[in-house]
């Protein structure tokens, strides 16, 4: 068999891509938007409402219902799931799931999958990457481990609020009895893979790198970080595995319900960011990748690990071997949507405002685009700031606001990717906003780099399928990238050299304004 299924359980949806290595074609794709298709979970943006804006949790059963619905609709579209040789995939990085008992056997497929999983949960909700409620726990872990420098040197990142280690510590502190009865802690990625395999499977290196628990150089849990996080933690974590590890075969539930072939291999799932690196064909150093989704994320392969001296960026394991750099920005699509909604702009009008109604530099009007608390840089509250002429600051210029939010995001991205130590000539883009010509134009000019969208919109799901194919020996990463990770050259946007000086000046203005904002927030804190 030459077909491979890739899954991506992201913040707002579950997506699938099927590739055929014999024909070099993507033969099927489908997705389930949680808010639209599963409204009963009350999570229109993929997470449960909470009066505390720092708390962002999701119901793991929503992801399970989405999996059942996705596979049912794939089969309904005529996709022969018995032709799938192996399944790979990804989950939104840093989300964690807590089980009182390991997953073992899911029945014959007669009853919904959620009914098999619900009794296993020791914690009804799963903290996700948007949760920033663990500032105290981060400080406690750093102090117990010997300081921020030690945590960075060992794990590749400072103790970060959304990372799994601080989330586990908070759970232990606030719900010690539930923590004690937890026998398995999994990431979203390993949780979905475990369900597919019908048994609890290990966390993969790339996703495990986002936990503040993994010793990056050794590829194993670090006892000092485990001890600094919560008691008895090692016993709740299976030993991590390399990216290409086959961790099991498809559970009988899926064979009987959806027609998968017995013995279909399950390859260790990774995080959505490492998976996107694979899907974008950027597993070797030299090409940057920008994912434009709920959050915006810039990442690139590294020959050796580097760390961000400001503590915002991260070093993770690269699924293809070696390391990758990553910086994540919470104010991605949610910030763009905030501006579009406030000024009554649909996405064509939003793009037109940038391309035809405004000019590079926006007449000096600048927006610090922090409509939500931010992690790059660290901002504990929403701090969106309009700077410019009076009409702009009074928010009566829709076109200027559209350009300003995108320029502000691009300038922030550039400022906080300098630590990677590369000047990129080409940036591959993926995600929902990667088809918006106005956004791509600004990115090309701010970075003075050619922007290349990927033909397949969901690079993370594609990365899952490619990793599955590579793991069972269908082809190398390089060969698979040549077939499936081709950029959409017709949508490529080259930089306009005439904008270079304009954006250099705007970058200086942005950097000063951001420094002033951070100084004010530090005083308030």
Describe this structure as you would to a colleague.
The protein folds into three domains: 3-274, ATPase, nucleotide binding domain (Nucleotidyltransferase, domain 5); 275-328 and 424-497, 2-Layer Sandwich (Nucleotidyltransferase, domain 5), CATH 3.30.420; 333-416 and 511-524, ATPase, nucleotide binding domain (Nucleotidyltransferase, domain 5, 2-Layer Sandwich), CATH 3.30.420.40. It starts with a strand and ends with a helix. The protein has 525 residues and is α+β, with helices and mostly antiparallel strands. Strands 1, 2, 3, 5, 11, 12 and 13 form a seven-stranded mixed sheet that branches. It has a six-stranded mixed sheet with strand order 16-17-15-14-22-23, with helices on both faces.
Provide keyphrases for this structure.
Nucleotidyltransferase, domain 5; 37% helix; 525 residues; 20 helices; six-stranded mixed β-sheet; alpha+beta
- As a percent range, the share of helical residues equals 25-40%
% residues in beta strands: 15-25%
**Roughly how many Å is the radius of gyration?**
22 Å
How many domains? 3
Instruction: Please state the structural category.
Output: alpha+beta
The residue-averaged pLDDT reads 94
Form type: globular
Fourth CATH level, the homologous superfamily of the largest domain: ATPase, nucleotide binding domain
Largest sheet: 7 strands, mixed
Cα end-to-end separation: 59 Å
Task: Tell me the CATH architecture of the largest domain.
Answer: 2-Layer Sandwich
Output the CATH class name of the largest domain: Alpha Beta
Q: Quaternary state, please?
A: single chain
Low confidence ranges = none
């Amino acid at each position: 068999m030459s077909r491979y299924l890739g899954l991506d359980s992201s913040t707002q949806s579950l997506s699938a891509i099927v590739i055929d290595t014999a024909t070099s074609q993507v033969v099927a794709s489908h997705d389930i938007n949680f808010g639209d298709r599963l409204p009963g979970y009350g999570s229109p943006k993929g997470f449960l409402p909470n009066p505390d804006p720092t708390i962002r949790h999701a119901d793991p059963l929503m992801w399970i219902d989405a999996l059942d619905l996705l596979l049912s609709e794939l089969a309904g579209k005529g996709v022969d799931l018995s032709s799938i040789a192996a399944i790979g995939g990804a989950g939104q990085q840093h989300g964690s799931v807590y089980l009182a008992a390991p997953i073992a056997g899911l029945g014959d497929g007669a009853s919904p999958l959620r009914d098999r999983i619900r009794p296993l949960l020791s914690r009804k909700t799963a903290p996700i990457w948007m949760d920033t409620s663990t500032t105290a726990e981060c400080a406690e872990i750093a102090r117990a481990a010997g300081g921020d420098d030690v945590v960075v040197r060992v794990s590749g990142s400072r103790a970060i609020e959304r990372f799994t280690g601080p989330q586990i510590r908070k759970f232990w502190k606030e719900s010690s009895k539930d923590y004690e009865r937890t026998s398995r802690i999994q990431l979203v990625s390993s949780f979905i893979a475990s369900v597919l395999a019908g048994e609890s499977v290990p966390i993969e290196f790339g996703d495990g790198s986002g936990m503040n628990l993994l010793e990056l150089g050794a590829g194993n849990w670090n006892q000092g970080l485990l001890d600094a996080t919560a008691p008895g933690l090692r016993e709740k974590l299976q030993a991590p595995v390399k990216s290409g590890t086959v961790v099991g075969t498809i559970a009988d539930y899926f064979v009987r319900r959806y027609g998968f072939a017995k013995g279909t291999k399950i390859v260790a799932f990774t995080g959505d960011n490492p998976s996107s690196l694979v899907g974008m064909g950027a597993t070797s150093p030299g090409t940057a990748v920008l994912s434009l989704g709920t959050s915006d994320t810039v990442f690139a392969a590294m020959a050796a690990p580097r760390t961000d001296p400001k503590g915002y960026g991260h070093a993770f394991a690269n699924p293809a071997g070696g390391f990758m750099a990553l910086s994540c920005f919470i104010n991605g699509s949610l910030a763009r949507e905030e501006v579009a909604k406030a000024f009554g702009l649909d996405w064509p009008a939003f793009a037109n405002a940038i391309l035809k109604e405004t000019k590079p530099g926006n007449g000096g009007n600048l927006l610090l685009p922090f409509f939500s608390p931010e992690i790059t840089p660290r901002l504990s509250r929403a701090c969106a700031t309009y700077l410019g002429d009076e009409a702009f600051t009074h928010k009566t210029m829709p076109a200027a606001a559209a350009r300003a939010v995108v320029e502000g995001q691009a300038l922030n991205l550039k400022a906080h990717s300098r630590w990677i130590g590369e000047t990129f000539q080409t940036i591959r883009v993926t995600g929902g906003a990667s088809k918006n010509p106005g956004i791509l134009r600004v990115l090309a000019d701010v970075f003075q780099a050619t922007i290349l969208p990927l033909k397949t919109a969901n690079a993370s799901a594609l990365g899952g399928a490619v990793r599955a194919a590579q793991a069972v020996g269908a082809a190398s990463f390089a060969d698979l990238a040549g077939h499936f990770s081709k950029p959409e050259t017709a949508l490529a946007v080259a930089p306009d050299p005439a904008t270079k000086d304009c954006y250099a000046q705007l970058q200086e203005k942005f950097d000063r304004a951001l420094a002033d904002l951070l100084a004010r927030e530090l005083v308030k804190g």
